[in-house]
Amino acid sequence: MNKLSVSLKKIVILVLILAVPGFLYYLLTVKGKNRYKPLPFYGPKQVAKTGHKFHGTYIPDTIYHKLDDFKLVNQEGKPITLKDFEYKIFIVNFFYSHCPSVCDVMNKNMQRLADAYGKNRMVKFVSITVDPERDTPETLKAYAQQYKARPNKWMFLSGDTTSIYSIARKGFLVNAVKVSDNDFVYDNRLILIDQEKRIRGYYDGTKEADITRLNDEIKVQIAEELRKIKAPDL
């Protein structure tokens, strides 16, 4: 092989190294199905008095539904408020410890996700009991151990009934109500919350396809948050 052939080969390799990443990025962002398109916002919204310009056109800002602050207690007996999720994305579900198989399926899926994002300090997981009278912090601590849940990554929260049912209906916009001593109506969906405490997705906690979609959309939300000004102490 002469020197000209070697030089041409090196040039081709260099062009491929430089061009392929850019082409893949183009496919993802322009042509591909997995575009970095922001996730939708759920809940009531209203038009703000403020706005911004985009390509010379004035666009009013939108005020999206946000969670109100709450005060619950985790499996370690520590008070938990929304401040504990500052600069965090978190995934929430509702359950109760003596529930039939549905809760176990949901929480096994939560366990898979919590393990997958175990080293990512931007993402947390929260399971809120709909039976706080029976699910004390001590009960939840024992329950959490079967899923090997780390309190700083996956919190199991309890509190008073009125607060929890209000948080479910008015904050997370899902059902939670006591029917009898051993029967509760609650939503089996997992809920994705962004760093600004807005609802960005609902996913059936018992369906594999929804868990896969949630896993993908957590990554999309992480990308969205990272595009903003970097928050301290992530």
What does this structure look like?
With 234 residues, the protein is of the alpha+beta class. Helices cover 36% and strands 26% of the residues. The protein has helices spanning 3-31, 101-116, 137-145, 161-171, 208-227; strands at 45-54, 57-64, 72-73, 79-80, 89-95, 123-129, 154-157, 176-180, 183-186, 189-193, 199-204. The strands form four sheets. Strands 7-6-5-10-11 form a five-stranded mixed beta sheet. Strands 1-2 form a two-stranded antiparallel sheet. It has a two-stranded antiparallel ribbon with strand order 3-4. The longest helix has 29 residues, at 3-31. The radius of gyration is 22 Å and the shape is globular.
SSE layout and pairings?
Layout: H1 3-31, E1 45-54, E2 57-64, E3 72-73, E4 79-80, E5 89-95, H2 101-116, E6 123-129, H3 137-145, E7 154-157, H4 161-171, E8 176-180, E9 183-186, E10 189-193, E11 199-204, H5 208-227
Parallel strand pairs: 5-6, 6-7
Antiparallel strand pairs: 1-2, 3-4, 5-10, 8-9, 10-11
List keywords for this structure.
234 residues; two-stranded antiparallel sheet; alpha+beta; 5 helices; single chain; 5-stranded mixed sheet
Short description:
With 234 residues, the chain is α+β, with helices and mostly antiparallel strands. It has helices at 3-31, 101-116, 137-145, 161-171, 208-227, and strands at 45-54, 57-64, 72-73, 79-80, 89-95, 123-129, 154-157, 176-180, 183-186, 189-193, 199-204.
